[in-house]
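Contributing new complexes? Match this layout with magnesium ion.
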Amino acid sequence: MRTSASVLHLDLDAFFASVEQRDKPSLRGKPVVVGGVGGRGVVATASYEARKYGVRSAMSTREARSRCPHAAFLTGRFHAYREASAIVMGLLRSVSPLVEPLSLDEAFVDLAAADLPDLELATCVAVAEDLRARVHEATGGLTASVGLGTSKFIAKVASDLDKPDGLTVVPPGTERDLLRPMLVTVIPGVGPATAERLRRAGIQTVADLELVDLEELVRLVGKAHGNGLFHLARAQDDRLVVAEREAKSVSVEGTYDTDLTDRKLMEGLLTRQAGEVAERLRKHGLSGRTVSIKVRLHDFTTLSRSSTLSSPTDSTATVARMARGLLADLDTSGGVRLLGVGVSGLADWIQEDLFGETTEEEVEPLPEVEVPSSRRRTWSPGMDVEHTTMGRGWVWGAGRGVVTVRFETAASASGPVRSYPDDDPELSAWRPADPDETAPAPPA
Ligand SMILES: [Mg+2]
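Output block (do not edit by hand):
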């Protein structure tokens, strides 16, 4: 165990919803729900104003609408979230080389690896406060909650104690006092099923858990889990902050303004993406064994499927065939918003062919595929648009042949609302230049 509170956990507050409020001035201070807006959609993030009405992440959008009908229900804009996330992760890496992102909006930072004069409590707190201020400034107003503690577990618990926009420090030696009154679900890995099993044994708080010996815990929840619980209940957590390793995979993905439903089109897109991935592998002298696809459905759920070969490949035909095979097992009838292909398990060599034959890259012509855009356009609530004379805005709502747009951006005041026929040629989707095209690190 560390003797200094040098593990920092930073968590952006209501991240997706906060980015939407930043970029849509008319929604500031109002309930905003980001997620799937269709029939089977789920809530990804609710703003604090919406949480007051009981709207929570992972709740069905239908339930959220009944609890807070006046909220703005928006589909996500991942380009904006990725951009904000990159700014924040960059700031964290300027503090310490040891930054471990958990998701777009959360990361651990190891201050023991930072260039600090000491790891006294006051020093760590000053770093944390400075970081919070810089995040706010650099992201155009997003807030972050931060926890400081002697381990990852404690830092993560702490960042959640004073949300939003808070800093919680757990001084070394006070960890167990902090945990004792908390419910066992505060411990990572204790989900509803484990919590229920423990509850039936009369264990509800961490203090209750502390009284149970290791043998009994193992009997209750199994060996691997029991061991972990035993130590975490005593705030014993030696897990290291592990910096993101170099590119472990090469992938290409595309997001679409229109829900794709045509299988042939999807297969064509995957084949083209497989071609781009394989070309990047070959360019960098890499090959990989695991091919995966990523599919985001119209209701915001994201599916990943992968399959592993017995030996590494950099062949377009192989990657494409596997990607199409993985798609075949998924139900995409409701429409698809994002498709991607990746290859991981990379090796910087290609297995020698034992039989000495040279196999030429099988030539499969890449299909000409065109994503339907101009004819039947989908205007999803929240998406960025541009009008030839009114400028930039976002889709407030659409239906019955009409699309309603509010013309405002992060930098403007709350803007005017106008309606147009949904095929108005003066209105188009707006997207920033593609930020995703990053080459993998060359092999060492
Ligand atoms: Mg968060």
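Reviewers usually confirm one structural detail per submission. For this one: The radius of gyration is 25 Å.
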